[in-house]
Design brief:
This protein has two domains: 10-21 and 266-386, Alpha-Beta Complex (Aspartate Aminotransferase, domain 1); 22-264, Type I PLP-dependent aspartate aminotransferase-like (Major domain) (Aspartate Aminotransferase, domain 2). It has helices at 22-28, 30-33, 44-64, 77-92, 107-118, 136-142, 165-174, 249-264, 266-287, 314-321, 332-337, 342-346, 351-355, 368-386; strands spanning 10-11, 71-74, 98-102, 122-126, 147-151, 178-182, 201-205, 216-220, 292-293, 304-308, 325-326, 357-361. With 387 residues, the protein is an alpha/beta fold. Helix 1 (22-28) packs antiparallel against helix 8 and helix 10 (314-321) packs across helix 14 (368-386). It has a seven-stranded mixed beta sheet with strand order 2-8-7-6-5-3-4, sandwiched between helices. The chain contains 14 helices and twelve strands. Bound molecules: pyridoxal-5'-phosphate. The site of pyridoxal-5'-phosphate (PLP) has 14 residues, from helix 4.
């Protein structure tokens, strides 16, 4: 049975997922059983569902400064990343079999790259500096005549570090290379403009922006036939033939609404989040000796705080905090493998440092009181474990 909200732990894991905004849920609701039609059907039920899809497509396109016919709905960020990378690879793999990505990418990018390597592709995994930033000179040097694609995330899901998207887009296009960015964490919090930033492919996921799980989108820049991609899910030819399968109508309505709200409220949301995040860091650093921040202090998502507490095992912290504060050691993926975070290791830190690392992600509904309580709970847990 669901517990009363007031008795539940403080939620500081918004990089893993966000709650559906009640306004989003309100828009989705009628599309489950009242307007349940298949948007592929040529009758009143299909047409009303189809109108809802096209409205959502407009909302998503507007959030990116893209055109509506450049938005392909998917089952989430993972599928969008797979479609972008594997789809380009299949289109261009006869001619040019090299791509460039970064060591700190999400597994939904890294594991697609590993698969391309098994198929004989060359993949360059760029390293980052101790704050998680790429060197654009390294990027330029990595480009060869064989390079087809650069895939660099807009904002990191563990340390929140931001990539200079416009600069990367410029370099990619100067060398006639395609540019994909996984903007799953950045969407809603940063202004994204696929034209100004010269982005060819961009990944979104609804559940990281206060929409539902299981739905996302890929922006695919419109080019003359045959287009940039070969479909990876084949079937009835939905989504301009690039991704088949009956559309998740309520989910897509939710994605569109969630992005619409995020764009409208971006300014005040990001200011508020940055203030809360700074309070959290000020509180923790005042009460926990030796605590250090991972990542870059300013080129960072406003809602991210990633810290290492030397000598305090993060798994023990999570266990101790379980009744009071929900946070994580790194991405949800590492929870399955129990490996030290590949992102923290890429900063040049030791596995020991990675095992003492906690990731905190603040959200739209996080309050000042929750931050004060979380500081208290976290510093008490540290005293207990060190004590
Ligand atoms: C969550 C996340 C994904 C995966 O998105 P899903 O919709 O959960 O498949 C991909 N990339 C990044 C950066 C993420 O944070």
């Amino acid at each position: 049975m669901a517990q009363a909200t007031s008795t539940r732990p403080i939620y500081l894991d918004h990089h893993a997922t966000t709650p559906v905004d009640p306004r989003v849920l309100g828009q989705m609701y009628p599309y489950f059983s009242q307007y349940f039609g298949n948007p592929g059907s040529d009758h009143a039920y299909g047409i009303e569902a189809g109108c809802a899809i096209e409205r959502a497509r407009q909302q998503v396109a507007a959030a990116l400064q893209a055109r509506e016919d450049e938005i392909i709905f998917t089952s989430g960020g993972t599928e969008a990343n797979n479609l972008a990378i594997a789809g380009v690879a299949e289109r261009y793999g006869e001619q040019r079999r090299h791509m460039i990505t970064c060591q700190t990418e999400h597994m939904a990018v890294l594991n697609v790259c590993r698969e391309l390597e098994r198929q004989g592709w060359g993949v360059t995994y760029l390293s980052v500096d101790e704050q998680g930033c790429l060197d654009l000179e390294d990027l330029r040097r990595a480009i060869t005549a064989e390079t087809t694609l650069i895939s660099i995330m807009a904002a990191n899901n563990e340390i929140g570090v931001l990539a200079p998207l416009a600069e990367i887009g410029e370099i990619a296009h100067a060398h006639n290379v395609l540019f994909h960015t996984d903007a799953t964490q950045a969407a809603g919090l940063l202004s994204l403009d696929v034209r100004a930033m010269q982005i060819d492919l961009l990944t979104l996921s609804a559940h990281k922006v206060y929409g539902p799980k299981g739905v996302g989108a890929l922006y695919v820049r419109k080019t003359p036939p045959p287009g940039l991609l070969v479909p990876q899910v084949r079937g009835g030819g939905h989504e301009r033939g690039l991704r088949s399968g009956t559309l998740n109508v309520p989910g897509i309505v939710g994605l569109g609404e969630a992005l619409g709200i995020a764009v409208n409220e971006q300014k005040c949301d990001t200011t508020r989040l940055r203030d809360l995040r700074d309070r959290l860091w000020d509180g923790l650093s005042a009460s926990i000796t030796g605590i250090v921040r991972n990542g870059h202090p300013t080129k960072c998502l406003p809602n991210n705080l990633n810290v290492a507490i030397p000598g305090v095992d993060a798994q023990n912290m999570l266990a101790l905090l379980r009744p009071t504060v929900a946070l994580s050691t790194g991405s949800a993926c590492h929870t399955f493998t129990r490996e030290p975070s590949h992102v923290i290791l890429a900063l040049g830190k030791s596995p020991e440092h990675a095992r003492c690392t906690l990731r905190m992600g603040l959200g739209r509904f996080t309050t000042v009181q929750e931050i004060a309580d979380a500081v208290h709970q976290i510093s008490s847990a540290v005293s207990q474990l060190r004590g």
